[in-house]
Amino acid sequence: ATPTSIMVGTGRAAESGILFKGGEHLEGIHQLNAIVMDKTGTITKGKPEVTDFTGDEEALQLLASAEKGSEHPLAGAIVAYATEKNIDFVEVDEFDSIPGHGIEARLAGKQVLVGNRKLMNDYQIDMEGNEEELVEFETDGKTAMLIAIDGAYRGIVAVADTIKETAPQAIRELKEQGLEVIMLTGDNERTAQAIAKQVGIDQVIAGVLPEEKADKIKEIQDMGKKVAMVGDGVNDAPALVTADIGIAIGTGTEVAIEAADLTILGGELLLIPKAIRISHATIQNIR
Ligand code: ADP
Ligand code: MG
């Protein structure tokens, strides 16, 4: 590739909101076989809202107070919900975030756990036969979190995030370009499958711990594929670095943008197939 054609290509891309860190990535994107996408904040808008809460007022007070210490988008949704309900927040004495699982906090003299099945299993909390209700939320594409206070199950808080309007079209275009599209998420299998279905993704890797995301990319590369990773979170940074091409969501974290080879402004997913078209056009001009 001549330096001039690459410069023209990256310039064209930049005008559309595709910011390459270097001309070599414009060429690299031409050779991709697969594209792995994070769920929350990448495929979805990343603005989750509480849709259901099955516990009592005390549980909500303790749960929301505990979540105030978490920076996770799920926590933000819970705090906003409790604020709307005029819940008085109580002071938190101890707080522990357990990546990929949830949180543990101590407040008002009580131990509060909020998180997924893995968290409840680790603390040997009896779900009291509420698995069915949980499955129902998940089948709807909701992220359902379980609450336990002083070791006893106290309810479910379910959160929903909407998909980006252009996500189905972007994914269709990527498939037409011959790419395998895969969703990679820390969320549970059932919720992930429901969201994947809404956007037309048929390959899902769910329940992945933050530190395992990069390993999953390596596994795909070991099958001889050139892989792009698309992500917005701090959790995604190692996977963005590991992938042949790392694509950051412009509305995402600084850490993800730093780790990526290119950034798509406003998190507009249609810019990814567009970047590939610009890459093709650039390469063809060279030949
Ligand atoms: P994602 O890929 O969606 O960013 P994470 O690895 O951050 O996933 O989280 C995985 C799961 O861990 C969440 O779906 C949720 O069940 C649980 N979790 C994470 N953070 C919290 C939190 N602050 N409160 C409750 N549950 C949490
Ligand atoms: Mg994300």
UniProtKB/TrEMBL annotation:
It is found in: Cell membrane. Coiled coil: none annotated. It comes from the Bacteria. Involved in copper export. Belongs to the cation transport ATPase (P-type) (TC 3.A.3) family. Type IB subfamily. This is Copper-exporting P-type ATPase. It comes from Oceanobacillus indicireducens. The chain holds residues 459 to 745 of 795 of the full protein.
